[in-house]
Amino acid sequence: MSQLECRGNEELSDMSYLRTFAPWIVYAIIPSAHWQWAALIALIMSVVEVARQLRAGRTLDALMIEIGSLVFFAALTALAFADPNTALHPYSPALSSGVLALIALVSLALRKPFTLGIAKQTTPQELWDNPVFIRTSYVLTSVWAASFVIGCIVLTALAHADSTPRTIAQVLAFVIPVVFTIRYVAYIQSKARTAAEA
User: Fold this and answer.
1) Residue pair 19/12 in contact by the 8 Å Cβ criterion
2) This prediction's pTM
């Protein structure tokens, strides 16, 4: 892989992942006593991000997480305000991880890993069909999917526990794949530099 291809894998350079998952992170850190407002804020953030991406020329198939976020938080906001004491409330963190896991797994099944759409935001178009670039996206999406599946299971088990372990579990479901993404992309870049120098 050339130096240009190496640069193409810098998927985190413009905080694309942070923008993509910001509604979920905000929803996770706002105390559950205010879950209606957390859901509404996350919904507004999702609408703004989808609108921003569409204005930038992104296609719908590259916005799987963003559109999934919008749909999920629209439904959750409606439920939260219609029935604030619903029995589903303690399970909403698990539902959020479950929805993200489903989106990630569907994107893999459709052969359009969601990290590919994020990576394309900071990658020259001539690299989009590069096998290393595509393979990297499959690996990263698989790790994100696994983290969300595990997060869903853990959060279901913690549904009626204190809010602190739930919040920690929600945050870890994002932090672990972010750390892996940074390290894996750095590894791919290092291999590319070594190959280019050779």
Assistant:
1) no
2) 0.85
